[in-house]
Amino acid sequence: MTTSLQNFVTDTWVEATWEAFMRCAYNPAYEHGKAYYYQGKARIEMTPLGWNHAEDNTMISSLINIFCAVKGIPVRGLTNCSFRKTGLQEAQPDLAFYINSLENIPRRSNSPVDLNQFPPPDLVVEMAASSLGDDLGVKRLLYESLAVQEYWVVDVNHSEVICFVIANGGSKSISTSPTLPGLTMSIAQETLERSHAEDHGAITRWLWSQLS
User: Fold this and answer.
1) Domain ranges in the chain with CATH number 3.90.1570.10
2) 113 phi and psi, to 5 degrees?
3) Residue 161 CB: number of other CB atoms within 10 A?
4) Residue 5 phi/psi, 5° resolution?
């Protein structure tokens, strides 16, 4: 049964037309949610976010930016940005990065990124607290279909980072980032583990020493 605005259930995938999804996504009741659409199903996440999710999001963003600064890699990062193929797909990852080739990236705007006009981000990251199964499952398939090059899932309950390289419509788990050569998931995991006890300034100094 196709879902209407009146009986939309959040934090799960439900059958919905694109038009119904758009009405929900722009409804004030869901303005603080994260919206996804894939293969005729919609998902709007409204679960409150706690310390683990928020801090790990900050630390992973810092890690990637510091790595790019040390290695001289051009990067533009986005938090909770929506990426849209009208009528087909939409994703709103916790983090997204355009890396190296920045000539054709979207211009500044308050609208979702139009993936019919601009390329998808090179790397996307999802923080998984209660959504690990979905992040490893349907969302991974969604990012494969959007032709993102690399996808990280951060299990915030276990400080684990799972990296997928995406190619030819599929993906596989790997231990070193192909988009950021030399950046290992072990460094990412240690960054998260250190954040349990150390302040962010100390972790930044440690990262500079490890990556330089």
Assistant:
1) 49-211
2) -70, 125
3) 24
4) -60, -35
Q: Which tokens sit at 66?
A: 């510091």
Q: What percent of the chain has pLDDT over 90?
A: 88
Q: Which residue has the tokens 């009208």?
A: 86
pTM value is 0.94
Amino acid at 42: A
CATH T-level assignment (fold) for domain 49-211: tt1808, chain A (3.90.1570)
Backbone conformation region of residue 28, classed left if phi is above 0, alpha if psi is from -120 to 50, else beta? alpha
Angle between helices 185-194 and 200-211 (to 10 degrees): 160
The two three-digit tokens of residue 72, written as one number:
């001289």
User: Is residue 2's pLDDT more than 60?
Assistant: no
Angle between helices 51-71 and 185-194 (to 10 degrees): 130
